[in-house]
Specification:
Shape: globular
CATH superfamily: Glycosyl hydrolase domain, family 43
Radius of gyration: 18 Å
Number of strands: 20
CATH topology: Tachylectin-2, Chain A
Strand order of the largest sheet: 1-20-19-18
């Protein structure tokens, strides 16, 4: 299960006001052959998230073939669920369109933020997107009372499944609110209208953990499932789990096969992994220090 790191493949360039720092939570869309478009989240001068992309040939992933000049998705209107940020999470093709599931950020009062999940659609092969509504497709509810974020979505025949971050609680520690969130799942008949059931897929494993985020699920030909995710005590690390049905998961973090480096851009933390298959290998895009400020790395292993 060991991954071979290929190093840092993308450092965020400054793009006027919308991309001042970060290239966080990467996800990839195949353009055919060895070419991929990689979407990422940048931050503006007010720390609001915008979504952009760059394109690479996996035979030479360190050389960007194209970099977006403008964001493909920006924060929403006054008072909306994504007023203070739109953050990447998942892209997939649906007939002639590309669906982008993303996290919307809104600043809170007693807590620093409230997240919800939105959907944007592209009619030009992922070069631009329009939001399907001013509201989220999944937000706070009876089963998810605090916040939801980081959706991973698979379509299985006529059935859709989502794994996502859900906050279990906020706790005041030393007078400051601290979030506790883990991974849950939801189902849909159309990819737009979702029903969260409150089922916990990946839960806290020790008293030190408080943040489990960014699930990435792959379904194997054997109908079993693999999930990579980020978990945090003192620092983010990448975890791994397996399931026979996508509902009940066994944490096997010792088999994740990737750790923080001894020095450099991913030495303090390693997180937000996105795994995809290509020509007999798994490829993992991931972030390192400071939640993506240091850029995007790539690791590879054989299937």
């Amino acid at each position: 299960m060991a991954w071979v790191k290929q190093g840092l493949i993308f450092e965020p360039p400054r793009r006027s006001s919308w991309l001042v720092s970060h290239s966080a939570v990467p996800c990839a869309l195949s353009l055919g052959g060895n070419r991929y478009r990689i979407y990422f989240t940048g931050r503006d001068g007010s720390n609001r998230s915008h979504i952009g992309y760059f394109e690479v040939d996996l035979r030479n992933p360190g050389e960007a073939l194209a970099i977006t000049e403008q964001p493909v998705l920006a924060p929403g209107s006054l008072g909306s669920f994504d007023e203070h940020g739109a953050m990447t999470s998942w892209v997939l093709r649906q007939q002639s369109q590309v669906y982008m599931y993303y996290t919307g950020w809104a600043r809170g009062s007693s807590v620093p933020f409230v997240n919800s999940i939105g959907l944007a659609v592209s009619d030009d092969d992922g070069l631009s997107f329009h939001k399907i509504s001013e509201g989220p497709i999944l937000g706070r509810s009876m089963v998810d009372p605090y916040l939801v974020a980081n959706p991973c979505v698979l379509k299985e025949g006529d059935h859709w499944r989502m794994w996502y971050l859900s906050a279990a609680k906020w706790v005041l520690e030393s007078g400051e609110p601290k979030h506790y969130y883990h991974i849950r799942c939801a189902q849909s008949a159309d990819g737009i209208n979702w029903k969260g059931e409150g089922r916990i897929c990946i839960d806290f494993q020790s008293a030190d953990e408080y943040a489990i985020s960014r699930p990435c699920v792959i379904k194997e030909q054997s109908d079993s499932y693999r999930m990579w995710y980020s978990y945090r005590g003192e620092r983010y690390r990448i975890g791994y789990a397996e399931s026979s049905d996508g509902f009940d998961w066994e944490r096997l973090d010792n088999l994740a096969g990737i750790e923080a480096s001894d020095s450099g851009w991913d030495s303090e933390m390693i997180e937000y992994g996105f795994v995809f298959r290509h020509q007999g290998h798994y490829y993992m895009l991931y972030n390192g220090n400071d939640y993506g400020r240091s850029g995007i790395g790539l690791a590879i292993r054989k299937i």
